[in-house]
Specification:
It contains ten helices and 14 strands. By secondary structure, it is α/β, with parallel strands linked by helices. The strands form three sheets. It has a six-stranded mixed beta sheet, sandwiched between helices. Strands 2-1-4-5 form a four-stranded antiparallel beta sheet, covered by helices on one side. The structure holds adenosine-5'-triphosphate and magnesium ion.
């Protein structure tokens, strides 16, 4: 439905943020993973038609979406990474304002706004000015405005930043329900956010697509390449130098070090079940 072909973006300072990036998207959740500066926000802004690529093409249902950005704008819900609100408006007023910009009115607008406020658990704060909202509450207003108007394409750039654990779970559930019949593109640095909801994960590095796979495929690729070893505290630095460590925990019997590698490498290491976080770390290692 959405075809991204050979997108390249060079900023005026000379940075190449996207480098011949191609991807085909159908309905479901696509998770974008990549280190700071990988090009995730650049890619999402271009698809959201707020930024023009240097070259390449985007087709939506077969039509040229760079020549006709309105085709995407009509069906888009977008939460930018640097989302801002009008401080003096209440949550309801702000959502009504954005809903009108999306072409909603009358009862459809009123019901839509009320439904979104429920979805993000903000009904009790609906009549308060946004100036008094916490960071996580603002983020939830951002999520609500992105989902308003039943968009076919939902692009959310680090939507879970600032959410408490309970609200993160809530957002994840919301997203899986929402994904039916639409395209959802989500970037995050919290790998576990994607474990249950992403149909596919795209790993981006230096503006290039390194890997695209289902969470299950990433996990099975990592199987047999994740190990644990228990070492004395004074050997820790040596281990950290030798292998890519994914976590460290201090316990009574020593320091438990979890690492990814092609082979056990360190004497005494045993293979353990990979998590998606391990799998992502491994993908980055392989791409480096
Ligand atoms: N407006 C801009 N002008 C010049 N360079 C930019 C601009 N926006 C981004 N860049 C550069 O483009 C590259 C990609 O940035 P981008 O924001 O797309 O990365 P990202 O993957 O979203 O990173 P993060 O995880 O930190 O949000 C970086 O090197 C960044 O410095
Ligand atoms: Mg970004």
């Amino acid at each position: 439905m959405l075809q991204i072909e050979e997108l390249t973006k060079r900023y005026s300072g000379g940075t190449t943020a996207l480098d011949s990036f191609s991807l085909e998207l159908g309905t479901g959740v696509l998770g974008l993973l990549g280190p700071n500066g990988a090009g995730k926000t650049t890619l999402m802004s271009i698809i959201a038609t707020v930024l023009r690529p240097t070259s390449g093409s985007i087709r939506w249902k077969g039509e040229d979406a760079l020549a006709r950005p309105d085709l995407i704008r009509r069906v888009l819900g977008y939460l930018p990474q640097d989302f801002g609100v009008y401080e003096r408006l209440t949550a309801t007023e702000f959502l009504c304002y954005l809903g009108r910009l999306k072409g909603l009115s009358g009862r459809g607008l009123r019901d839509g706004v009320a439904e979104m406020l429920d979805l993000v658990n903000l009904r009790p704060a609906a009549s308060r000015p946004l100036a008094g909202f916490s960071g996580g509450m603002r983020q939830r207003v951002g999520i609500a405005q992105a989902l308003l108007g039943n968009p076919e394409i939902v692009i959310v750039d680090e939507p879970t930043v600032g959410l408490d654990p309970e609200e993160r779970v809530r957002f994840r559930n919301l997203l899986s329900e929402l994904a039916h019949g639409r395209i959802v593109i989500l970037s995050t640095h919290i790998v576990s956010d994607l474990e249950a909801v992403a149909d596919r994960i795209a790993v981006i590095r230096q503006g290039r697509l390194v890997r695209i796979a289902t969470p299950g495929e990433l996990l099975s690729h990592a199987a047999g390449r994740v190990f644990r070893v228990v070492v004395d505290a004074d050997r820790l630095a040596q281990v950290q130098k030798a292998v890519a460590v994914s976590s460290i925990s201090r316990k009574a019997d020593g320091v438990h070090v979890r690492f990814v590698a092609e082979s056990p490498t360190i004497p005494g290491a045993t293979a353990i079940e990979p998590t998606l976080e391990d799998a992502y770390l491994l993908t980055n290692l392989e791409a480096a």
